Each structure stands twice: as structure tokens, then as C-alpha cells.
Amino acid sequence: MKGLTVKQQELLDFIEQFGRREGMAPTVYEIADHFGVKAATAFAHVRALQRKGYVTRSSKARSLSLVRADSPRHLSLTLSVPVLGRISAGAPLLAEEHVEETIQFDPALLPRGAGGHPIFGLRVTGESMRDAGILDGDIVIARQTAAASIGDTVIALVDNETTVKSLFIHESRIELRPANKAYKSQFYPLDQVYIQGVVIALQRTYA
């Protein structure tokens, strides 16, 4: 492969970072917007990367792919999702010490509009959400946000412990409702529950 100019290296780095964050390749317009240039200029840089053998691209939307050694890596195929262990109050949610492992997830399984927020996973312990299809050992995929709607399945931090429950609000109290009749709802003052994310997908491994 031929050497890169500074601008071409910056563009290549952006393509890779965008793919890791969003689970898909950027469009020419998104590249142009990021670098503050016209779409035609961004397209010219992409073509230069193609000629030098660093990327491939077809006429399909978001088909831009990085070329690695012997084969292209299509950014739209998988999304790297950090799976968190114990979450500590006051520490950044995606701090390195919270990450137990990283899994690859098909972004096509995410609901439309899930982009724009960091995505993380959490392994479920117990059967309290069984009737919602969330079983012990599953990994729930969540969109990191402190805002949630009533009825959302959320990852909440309470008393320095994480829990996956459905969110409901009653006057000055928050209800974290299970999806299993063997478990009871938990009620807390508003200022004692910290929403970490809203569950948007699920990954299950069969033994």
C-alpha cells in the first residue's frame, strides 16, 4: 500500500472510529460534516484512499470498508460492545475498570434510532425479568442514557447495585417492576435511583 498524507490518515482514523462507535460505516456526507469540507472534497479523499488500497466502496449506502492485510473488514457487520461488571456510583459508566469483556453484536438487531448514544452490555443474574424474555445469563444491550420513559426496561443503579427492571413512576417514588410473579416491585425515592441505560436488545448464548 502507498503512504498516506496527514489528511488521508485523519480520514482513515475517523472511518475506523465511526465504525466502532456506530456499528456502521460513515457516509460521504458524514465525513464532510466531521471535517468541515464539501461533500465533493470528502469524496475525493475517499477515492484517494481507494486508489491506495486502504478502503473499498460500492454504490450501496454505507458500503465503505477498511482493508486489513488480506481482506476488507466491513464496518457494518459487527459492533464491539463492552460488557460491564460491577458499576460503581460516581465513576464513569464506561470506565475501563467496569468492562469485563467485549462482545461482537450485529447492529442490524438494534432498533432504528439507537445510534447517537454509547452502547454497552450487562450480564443478567436471576430470573426476575423472565416473563419479558430476559433470562439468567443473558447479556442485555443498553443505550447509555439517564433519561427513560415510563415502561422502559432500564438498567438502574440503586444502593450501589445494578438491577434490570421496568420503570414506572408514582408521585415521588420510582417503581422498578419485575417481569416474574415470584418477585415484587421495588419502590424508591426519586433521588435514590440512577438510570444508567435503556435496554434495546439482547444477546443469548446457548450451551
Key words describing this protein structure:
single chain; 207 residues; alpha+beta; Arc Repressor Mutant, subunit A; Umud Fragment, subunit A; 2 domains; 9-stranded mixed sheet; 3-stranded antiparallel sheet; 12 strands; elongated
Q: How would you characterize this protein structure?
A:
- The protein contains three helices and twelve strands.
- The termini are far apart.
- It is an alpha+beta fold.
- It has helices at residues 6-22, 28-35, 39-51, and strands at residues 55-56, 65-68, 71-74, 79-84, 99-105, 119-123, 139-144, 153-158, 161-170, 173-177, 186-189, 193-203.
- Helix 2 (28-35) crosses helix 3.
- Strand 1 and strand 2 form a beta hairpin.
- It folds into two domains: 6-74, Arc Repressor Mutant, subunit A (Orthogonal Bundle); 79-203, Umud Fragment, subunit A, CATH 2.10.109.10.
- Helix content is 18%, strand content 34%.
- It has a nine-stranded mixed beta sheet with strand order 5-4-6-7-12-8-9-10-11, covered by helices on one side.
What percent strand? 25-35%
Largest β-sheet summary: 9 strands, mixed
Rg, please? Answer: 21 Å
Unreliable spans are: 69-76
Task: Estimate the mean pLDDT confidence.
Answer: 82
Q: State the total count of DSSP E strands.
A: 12
How far do the termini sit from each other?
A: 43 Å
The 3D shape can be described as elongated
Give a brief outline of the structure.
Helices cover 18% and strands 34% of the residues.
